[in-house]
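Assemble and predict.
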Amino acid sequence: MRTRPNYTAAVMTFIWLIIISVPLYAVVVTAFKPQAGYITDGPLSLPSSFTLDNIVTVLSGDFPRYVLNTLVVTAMTVAIVMVLAVPVGYAVVRGQSWLTSSVFRLFLLGLAIPSQAVVIPLFLLINQLGLYDTLWAVALPTAAFALPVSVLVLTGAMRDISNELYEAMALDGASPGRILTTLVIPLSKSGIATIGVFAALQAWNGFLFPLIFTQSSSAKLVTTGLYDYIAQYGANVPALMAAVMLSAVPILLVYLFARRALVAGLMGAGGK
Amino acid sequence: MVSLTATRRVTRQPEARRVAPSVGRPGVVWALPGLIFFAVFAVLPMAGVAYLSLTDWNGLSSPQFVGLENWARFTTDPQILQSIWLTAVLLVGNVAVQMPISILLGVWAAGHQRNRAVLSAIFFLPLLLSTAATAIMWRQLLDPNFGVPAQLAAVFGGDGNFVGTPRGAMIALVIVTSWQFVPFHSLLFQGAARAIPHTLYQAAMIDGAGRVRQFFSITLPQLRNTIVTSGTFMVVGGLTAFDVVLVLTNGGPGTDTTILPFRMYREAFQTYNYGYGSAIALLLLIVATAVSLLLVRLSGYDKMQSTQEGV
């Protein structure tokens, strides 16, 4: 059945296309403008002269270290979440005691805790543990706050594994540990990938924890580093825009090579 | 569903006799490491914030127990009332702007036309930027001296200081949040719209229903659950907006965009009133929990248990 073209939708999506692309365009062209050119031409005009100076300015400063720090925090967060959430999901789905279902309910309630609400006692805790101004200070709470969504996603994936498979393994006398490694983990791979991407996004985008739990530039992350650049670069807007642009490059690479996993992880991320 | 699980139970009877039900079942021990970790970094701090809200503490000396003094202060603190009001305004603004755009875009993107797929890929791009990066980008675009308003002001007059007015700053927060999160919500609606049975639309077309009628009589009712989920994300997102406020308006002009989470940050980490800050944090926690419980009720997450039937 052919329908006539939807002109209203075409006009509206065109407007949205402009709203989405103009700011992104402004970031990219500004990143390649000389500073003097920006002040006279403003953010939207095409660069009258093209320069890589801004990129060089950003990359020769602390920015590469911020990226490296963020990658380390991201890796730590993902590792902690995976190691902890997988056994929890397994116990919730296959465990029989009332305790395991209470565990599930506790994590469901945990979905509701906004990180802002507990940041003051966490600050105290981080100080007590002697972790202030380290990458662990960011990774540990970020991982903890990624756990509820991860458990929810994993229990969903693990419930899809058929009961007969579990029973066949139990009949052969397999221990819970063996069932987890040979059956549950291979069959819930996509769920595990989702929580990996989700945890990585939480760590990559996190702002409040690094802002409050770290201070020195040796422990600074990309998001808080960008925030510092507002004051540091001042009127050098092209350099600031170059930093904004460069900060998106790692996720852009993930988007190009693992779009499906990224979208699934984002949908999990929306739960926070 | 009921009959299905019933038959499965019957067929499983012989097996159940051969294997004891507990064989190969993980005990609660498996959940302990995750549970303890979560308790230490999320649950205990909740108790901590409740305790600290009853104290006067500057972060250096030990906390002094003052009972409900911080809570009594809520009733006399005009700034906290302003913060609550601003938080509510931001919530309503976020939902009112994002919801219609997200639904329309999501439903539109659910079509399988080639051009829609290409445009959808572009519409996804804001999701690649962190909130900090997005806010900095907009901060420069809206800058009164070097940004777009300055150029527009040269044409239309005015001083171009859009973010410098109370109303303009609030509108800017809604615009920036929407720019960043509409792509995400429209993804949710795209998925939900694709799941609507096509036969519903065919039946409607046979009955002579036009495009608009189909949207209001089929699409919208079918998206009900996603609207609830998405709306709650928007509300919670608005309740906990922090980085966008810090970067874009820094709570200003004056205190005209100082919403609750930002006020908590100010109180605790800039003026070192950890006790009063904790009381604000607890208020935030209570509101967020109430909203999330509503989400759990409406979306049926709490009925997840039922899929375990027959295990």
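The two ends of chain A are 41 Å apart (CA to CA).
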